[in-house]
Amino acid sequence: MEEEEQLRSFMFLMTYMLLKRRRDINNANTQRRNEIQRRIRHRQYFFQRQRRMLMMMIAGSIRSNIRTRPWTTTPSTDWWERVVMTEFQPSDWLDKFRMSRETFFYLCDKLRPRLARQDTSFRLALPVEKRVAVALWRLASNIEYRTISTLFGVGKSTVCRCVRDMCHAIVALLSSIYLRPPNEQELEDSAQLFLSHLGFPHCVAAIATLHTAIITPSNNASDYANPAGWLSVLSQVAVSGRGQFWDVCASFPGGTDPADILQNSSLWATAAEGGLSPALLPIFVGKPLRYVLLGEACYPLQTWLMKTYPEEKGRRASHAALTEPQRLFNRRITRALRVSEEALLRLRARWQCLSKRNDCGLDVVPTMILACCILHNMCESHGDAFKAGWQVEVVEAESPQPSHKQLLSTSMDQSHAEEVRQLFCDYFQQHNN
């Protein structure tokens, strides 16, 4: 018993000493980490101080008298004021800002009420022209904010603010000019263009979808996975016969059904109520009929929205083989839908923030898409040149736009819509040479 008691006392003493040793080691490690962190903060403070002193010395030093031509070696402040404003050629304006010099200054004048800032006692405000140039450079190239910051001699946060402010200003001030419902004359002109250039009569617009690649959002990321598997924001656009946008709905997750977007959009309500036809209905095949829109196979068939007949695929097709008039109708509508495909391709080629992965937040991307559509319409209306090389770059670099599942006959299809589609089949059969 006495030996057991001594052994128990010895074990207790050893346990205590081990616990005390462990506590001492933990305390020593904590003190060592705190000392290291203190030294790091101390060193960072002096590095930052030395950096500020070096920047002040550079800013106060005498500029070199050596003049070099490449823009990359031109001081940033001098680059904007001397190179861009005085030495840029018409091709330079088109390459860098995707518009002519005249259109650029027209845009600046239109946005001045929203973008002009007052000078303060601490700093001079950026001119409106420079703010617009910074934002357009970003939309056209989709390069990093840091690169644009160095190029224009402004802070990275200033670049971000310029992009955000300009996009909001464009939507607020220019939507009523360049993105609005068409009047009766514009409807008639668009119908003439669809007939003469695309071979489809009695049509005023084509509806299509646009997927814009985004970075992974913080919430509900799976909702943004489109049918091709990559993350995107989905937009719905209506394109006129001139290749310009009449209506744009942005901000939907890439996995959203296009039919749901259309059915809940203002375009659906306007078209269903006859808002895309004149008060006196035009005559088609001897009957008064509203103008129609053309849509992809993922949309429901309506009396005002035509789409292709479903093609038979495989032995288990749930519908009969197409007749020759139906196949002819499909060929004509597929040809006419090229107007929306080409308009979206020109849009993405001119403003490559829509063709490459956009690293802006979801609170900015929808406004950016709207702004780019408005800028597209403005440039097209002003007759600004479009370089084929931009289009080649986009086709080679971007991921193909996802194709949506064909929507077969459902309860969403409107009664009498099939009768209207048959009228077009009869028309094409009669005029097929």
Describe the structure.
- With 433 residues, the protein is an alpha/beta fold.
- It folds into two domains: 77-177; 181-309 and 322-431, no CATH class.
- The chain has 15 helices and seven strands.
- Strands 3-2-1-6-7 form a five-stranded mixed sheet. The protein has a two-stranded antiparallel sheet with strand order 4-5.
- Helix 4 packs across helix 7 (156-178) and helix 5 (128-141) packs antiparallel against helix 6.
- Tally of individual domains: 2
Low-pLDDT stretches are 62-74
Strand content: 5-15%
Helix coverage percent: 40-55%
Number of helices: 15
* Strand line-up across the major sheet: 3-2-1-6-7
Write down the secondary-structure element order: HHHHHHHHEEEHHEEEEHHHHH
Indicate the radius of gyration in whole angstroms: 31 Å
Reported for the largest beta sheet, the result is: 5 strands, mixed
Mean pLDDT level:
86
Number of strands: 7
Straight-line distance between termini? 118 Å
Q: What structural class do the secondary elements suggest?
A: alpha/beta
Domain DDE Tnp4: 209-377
GO cellular component, one term: nucleus
Keywords: Hydrolase, Metal-binding, Nuclease, Nucleus
Subcellular location: Nucleus
